[in-house]
Amino acid sequence: MSRLGMLYALTDAELEKLCAVPTEERYDYMLNEIEEKLFDTDRACELDKAWEGLQFCLCGGKWNETNCVPHNIIFGGEFLVDTEEEVITLKNKDDVKKIVEYLRQNDLRDIINQNFRKIDDDWAYKDNNGLEHTLGWSEDILPFYENAMKENCQVIFTVDF
Fold this sequence. Notes:
Layout: E1 5-10, H1 12-20, H2 26-38, E2 44-48, H3 51-58, E3 78-82, E4 86-91, H4 93-105, H5 108-115, H6 128-138, H7 141-150, E5 154-160
Antiparallel strand pairs: 1-2, 1-5, 3-4, 4-5
């Protein structure tokens, strides 16, 4: 169980192909078609295991999956796959624009520093190493979303548990 999170910027055609796949086959399709093609490009943003801390911090220290900014920057959005083992969520083009506006107006490092201590103490990564890990993996998020907006893409978040 890796728990490694990724963001991918998809064109309309790529998203259409993903959504045409039966729900129970979408995660495997994403791994074989999308990840293979986009992983080491500017249309991918690796989050490692920091995605969970980022989600907590963007939601004020509490877990929230609401499909609105800032809750949908990482985990939230429209669920394309939602099982106990795998998740894929979608942020549409309008969401991407709102996310870019939000991240340009609100420094993500400040948000993390302000909210990390608000996360419940029973979270496994609630220590100084977890804070540094979360901060480190946050650096590419705004440039990734700016590129997705420039290229007129939607964004999916993927994670397997």
